[in-house]
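Worked example

This section walks through a single chain of length 185. The input is the sequence exactly as stored; nothing has been trimmed or padded.
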Amino acid sequence: QQGSQIAIESEFQYQNDNDIKLDPEIENENKINIKEKKETEIKKKNTQDIWKKYFNGDSIAKYILRRTGDNKYQFLHKSCQEYYAAQKIIFDIISWKPKNIYTNHIDNQQFQQQFKIQAQKFLINKKLLNEEMGIIQFIADRIYDNNLMFVNLKSRLFRLIQSSKNNSKVSIAAANAATILNVAR
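Given that input, the structure is written out below as tokens.
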């Protein structure tokens, strides 16, 4: 696009070769089930050399970073950095899978137990994002994205809030989740 400083690839590369499965239904305190969509499968896209796409070839991603010195790079625009930070946070949350060695089915209680343990390790729990409105908005936009890849994002943000009720180590993630959900409504 002429006059635009931002170049973003239209399709983010999802790098998990497991199928995406819907989370079990959660119930809020009023016992209202959250509706969930059909299962989908996302195929792994191979990436050979991650840095090649930022400096060589035909990819528009080569316009995102600028080399500023030996092994030093800078995003051409803050929104590019915010976009990639948001994508990293989103995929950290939605790519997590529960461990269940006995069966493919896991009930909500088992799922929430495992999720609560993992929640404190998510990137969304590292820093309060309330000063990073660009990142918050990019994540909020994905909540209602029609791409089935993001089908569990909203419910997992609610799960982060729920996890914080019994685990103070998830308070940053819960605060960020609440902020994102508030912006998305």
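What to look for: Confidence is low (pLDDT under 50) at residues 1-17, 29-48.
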